[in-house]
Write a structure and sequence with these properties.
The protein is an alpha/beta fold. 47% of the residues lie in helices and 12% in strands.
Length: 381
């Protein structure tokens, strides 16, 4: 079933979600961008033409990236209407704008005409999405990719915290392409100072991160030091991987993407996404309720973001079981864990099969540095 961009957003009763019971998902855009690496997501899911896909909407980029693989249907769901408004505006932008204009609206490129670009997209929005974005003129002027709580958190880091440790010239040096050995030496010598580590641990503590970046309830099942975990992952992103081509690092450090674009915003994917937009639909619903409401009966692939991070093991197991009940044989479920290890194949060994070699290979290539692992499970017949 295809849905038009105007009628695709379906209000639904938020039932069955533990996360919804503990956090406010309805009033603000939490994430104006998808902070999960679509390159490893698309690789791990191995979407085939004709597949039916389920996807956590977030800001929309990763659901749009899934269209590149020619699925029959991508069903994006989110508890937060503001997140669906972010997705809906992106869909309208792919329809109404040219590629360079899309990058301007997002904030990937500088622009003095974002209000005019939004005006060209506005007619393709639903009434709810128009009301939402009509009240967000400052966010549009700055680029819609800056409009989330998480992005504002990084802006505070970039403008107020980072200059206490490293000058702008040092940031630019970090983003110079280097070979692996040279990159590691430079990071240890120039970047990974005692002051850097100390301020990082403060700013990325659960207290500050919960207050300014994510919701405090997101840490209710966390054990261990969030800041120490993130510091280790930053080492991987800045010293092991190449930060100069990492869109997430470049945005955090500079406030734009420059030439390091995420999957959905690369020029080679623009026309394919635009051509397949009618295969994407979005619904305001929990994953738990999407099957009960008949939104979708059976899926072949699922992008589950990091939703299990916010659930008890009991509730995570129940959701894995529901997903398995409504999946085809050989279906793939992909998801991230940050600080709370959740593995469907451990909870339901007779129904879900881990793909450890694939998962490990992709995790080592993951350009986002928040997560402890990336998991791809396969549904057993």
């Amino acid at each position: 079933m295809s849905a038009s961009p105007v009628s695709a957003a379906t209000p639904s009763r938020h039932t069955g979600s533990e996360a919804d019971a503990h956090a406010d998902f309805r009033s603000i855009i939490r994430y104006a961008q998808c902070w999960e690496d679509a390159d490893i997501l698309v690789d791990g899911l191995d979407i085939r033409p004709g597949n039916v896909c389920l996807s956590i909407a977030s800001a929309g980029e990763n659901s749009l990236s899934m269209l590149v693989q020619d699925p029959a249907r991508v069903v994006a769901v989110d508890l937060n209407p503001a997140q669906l408004a972010a997705l809906e505006l992106r869909v309208a932008a792919y329809r109404a704008l040219e590629y360079a204009e899309l990058l301007e609206l997002i904030g990937s490129r500088s622009s003095g005409r974002r209000a005019a670009l939004y005006a060209r997209c506005r007619g393709a929005l639903s009434a709810d999405a128009r009301r939402f974005w009509d009240a967000k003129s400052p966010e549009i002027e700055h680029g819609i990719g800056t409009a989330g709580k998480f992005e504002r958190y990084f802006e505070i880091f970039r403008r107020r915290v980072l200059p206490l440790v490293h000058r702008r010239a040092k940031v630019e040096q970090l983003l110079i392409p280097r070979g692996p050995d040279e990159r590691l030496r430079w990071y240890r010598r120039e970047w990974n100072t005692r002051t850097w580590r100390a301020l990082f641990r403060i700013f990325f503590s659960p207290t500050v991160l919960g207050r300014l970046g994510r919701d405090p309830s997101f840490f209710r099942y966390v054990e261990g030091s969030v800041a120490d975990h993130l510091l280790g992952r930053v080492h991987h992103a800045l010293a092991v991987l190449d930060p100069s081509v990492n869109p997430y690092v470049v945005w955090i450090l500079t406030g734009t993407h420059r030439d390091a674009l995420p999957h959905a915003l690369r020029p080679e994917h623009f026309e394919k996404i635009r051509a397949n937009l009618d295969r994407l639909e979005w619904h305001c619903a929990s994953i738990e309720s999407v099957f009960d409401q008949g939104i979708v009966e059976r899926i072949d692939r699922a992008n589950l973001s990091d939703i299990f991070e916010y659930m008890s093991q009991e509730n995570a197991t129940a959701l894995f079981a529901k997903l398995a009940d409504h999946s085809s044989s050989g279906a793939r479920l992909a998801y991230w864990n940050m600080m709370v290890p959740r593995h469907g194949s451990e909870y339901l060994p007779g129904r879900l099969r881990a793909l450890p070699e694939l998962s490990k290979r992709l995790f080592l290539a993951d350009k986002t540095f928040f997560y402890r692992d990336f998991v791809v499970d396969e549904v057993i017949a």
